[in-house]
Structures are given as C-alpha cells and as structure tokens.
Specification:
Number of domains: 3
CATH class of the largest domain: Mainly Beta
Shape: globular
Order of helices and strands: HEEEEEEEHEEHEHEEEEHEEE
Strand content: 25-35%
Mean pLDDT: 85
Distance between the termini: 44 Å
Radius of gyration: 20 Å
Number of helices: 5
CATH architecture of the largest domain: Beta Barrel
Number of strands: 17
Structural class: alpha+beta
CATH topology of the largest domain: OB fold (Dihydrolipoamide Acetyltransferase, E2P)
Helix content: 10-25%
C-alpha cells in the first residue's frame, strides 16, 4: 500500500496556531502534496494547494466513508451504495463489456486502488450533484486531506476536464496535468495521448483526445457557435458561453485563422467529427 509522509511537526504547530487565532483574522493556511506524496503545510502555497478551513488539521472529524470497490481510474463505489464520479478528471477506460482497455486505463485503476487501500474518504459534492448515469459528482479527499483527483493528475493517470458548473478547481487541475505531461508521466508517455491533427479526428471518435488545427470558419447559429477546420472537424460552444470564453482570451471570433489545440470527447454528427467546448480551458493553446 502506498503511504504518505507524515506532516512535519512544525506544520502541525502552524495549523494549531492559525486555528487559535483564526477569529482575529490570521492568514490562510494551505495543504499541498509534492510529487513524491509528501504532505506540506504553510501560508505560501504553490498554485495547486488546498486552502484549509480555520481549525482544520489532518485527521480531523468529518463524514468519512468506506470504499467497497474501485471499477476504474475515476470512479468509486462506496460501501453505502453511493457511486461516485470524481469531478475534474477523466481516466482512460478499462476493459468493459467486450471493449478492450485504453492505454493507461488498467494502470490508473491500479494506482487508485493502491492510493485508497484501507482508507476512508470524504466527499465535497459539486454544484451539479449527479451526472446522466445518476452517479454522485464529487471532489474526494482522504482523511489526511489528500485530494484524490490531484494525485491521479500529478502521476499522469488522468486528463483534466472542466464541465460547468463543477469547475471551481479546474485551473488547479489543469496546471497539475500540464506538469505531468511535461514530465512524460503515466499516460503522457504513450503516443495515443499526443496531440493529433484535426484531419485525423474522424478516426478518433468516441474517445477523449487533444486535436490541433487551423480555424477556417467561425459560424454563429441559433444556439451554438461553430469553429470549422479545413479538414471538416468542428469545435462548438453554446452562444451563452461566449462571454466566458472571451473573458479568458478565447473569444471565438479571435480564433479565426489561428492554429489551436482543443480537447474533449470526439463524436460524429452528420458524418463530421466534432467536439463540444464547455469551458475555455478546453482550448489548450492558440498560435
């Protein structure tokens, strides 16, 4: 079973001190985990640190729940019957109903099982509490405060995803993925997960992929704005999301003629591969 380094004693005194002075306006305290799994605490955190509530310490009281089964790299079945889908990540698929496993799928499942062996977890339910499969959507942490999704991302066993309204930690999760990708960890060492040209998108349907191409057209229609690529590939977003994309520097009209990398699930519609853009972070780069 994978074990974490204990928090240094000085960090625990820091937590205690801040808890005692919290009412007087003491600064925030954060917890983060390094790539080796060691826990750290302090008031000068990295970008992906978790802010702790006043008086919170590792091992504190809370609704800790037992795990019965882990079917893949992003889903938990709890002993009370709750099926939990981790918010903010997508792990490659394991073999299921005759479909073969995707590269990295079994590894993600094994990693998650080892990470959570003999542990109980605490859930933070998202603003959108359930998905279309009636699974509970939640951020999951262990008793010691370890963010399960972040650990998967840092180890390179999952993609970051952003589905509004469950996006409060999206920037942190995408940053963790970028670091794992730059280091070639986990699935990022497999050619399947390299950026693919838009012209190849038709062969990538029903999978989560990253695709590069030049935006040849921007076409607003009744409900959606469509970004058309020369190969026939499309990316589209709802018109009511345009302001959010513009605020993030990803206004559809500004992408015309630019080469972009987009990410998401590729589906076919009218014989054309397409990906839906729900969040600006799905437009990974612009040149």
């Amino acid at each position: 079973m994978r074990r974490f380094a204990r928090a240094p004693i000085g960090a625990l005194f820091l937590l205690a001190g801040l808890a005692l002075t919290g009412a007087a306006g003491a600064g925030d305290v954060y917890r983060w985990t390094d790539d080796a799994g060691a826990a750290h605490f302090g008031d000068r955190p990295p970008a992906d640190a978790e802010r702790l509530a006043a008086g919170t310490a590792p091992g504190g009281a809370g609704d800790l729940r037992a795990i019965e089964w882990i079917p893949d790299g992003d889903t938990l079945h709890l002993a009370d019957g709750t099926e939990v889908r981790l918010i903010g990540i997508n792990a490659p698929e394991v073999a299921h109903r005759g479909d073969p496993a995707e590269p990295g799928g079994p590894e993600a499942q094994r990693y998650l099982r080892a990470l959570l062996a003999d542990k109980r977890v605490r859930l933070t339910i998202g603003p959108e509490a359930r998905d279309k499969y009636d699974r509970t959507l939640a951020h999951v942490v262990t008793r010691d405060g370890t963010n399960v999704a972040l650990r998967l991302l840092r180890a390179g066993h999952a993609f970051a995803v952003a589905h509004p309204p469950n996006t409060t930690r999206a920037a942190r999760y995408f940053a963790a993925e970028r670091r794992a990708r730059a280091a070639g960890r986990g699935l990022w060492g497999h050619p399947r997960y390299a950026v693919k040209p838009a012209a190849a998108a038709g062969d990538l349907r029903n999978t989560f992929r990253r695709v590069r191409g030049r935006v040849a057209t921007v076409t607003p229609k009744r409900k959606y704005v469509y970004l058309g690529f020369a190969s026939g590939f499309q990316a589209f977003l709802r018109k009511d999301r345009r302001a959010a994309f513009a605020q993030a520097g990803r206004a559809p009209e500004a992408l015309l003629g630019r080469t972009v990398v987009v990410r998401g699930w590729i589906h076919m519609r009218d014989g054309r591969p397409r990906v839906r853009l729900r969040h600006p972070l799905q437009i990974e780069s612009v040149r």
